[in-house]
Design a protein that fits this description.
Cytochrome Bc1 Complex, Chain D, domain 2; 93 residues; two-stranded antiparallel sheet; globular; single chain; mainly alpha; 6 helices
């Protein structure tokens, strides 16, 4: 049973995460993560400063549930893991 579960585990893919980032995140955070587009008077977070300070669990919550003016994103757990892998590869942490 454990072997079956291990075989089914998703290996996060930063390249797939980059594609999802482009679709779901770049319009506010920018292609380089530092755009800070204003939404109702609040600038989107500069990802190069915040990603290294947050755990994967916190990033998952922010992405899937939203935070302040950032709306929740319609990503499943595997897609979210891919985006986080891309964020870690691109912005550190």
């Amino acid at each position: 049973m454990l072997l079956f579960l291990a075989a089914c585990a998703h290996e996060p893919d930063p390249a797939a995460g980059a594609d999802k980032y482009d679709l779901f995140c770049s319009s506010c955070h920018g292609a380089d993560g530092t755009a800070g587009v204003q939404v109702d008077g609040i600038a989107a977070t500069d990802l190069s400063t915040v990603v290294p300070t947050l755990s994967d669990n916190t990033l998952t919550t922010v992405i899937q549930d939203g935070y302040l003016k950032m709306p929740k994103q319609d990503l499943d757990d595997d897609e979210t893991a891919d985006v986080i892998a891309y964020l870690r590869e691109t912005f550190g942490g």
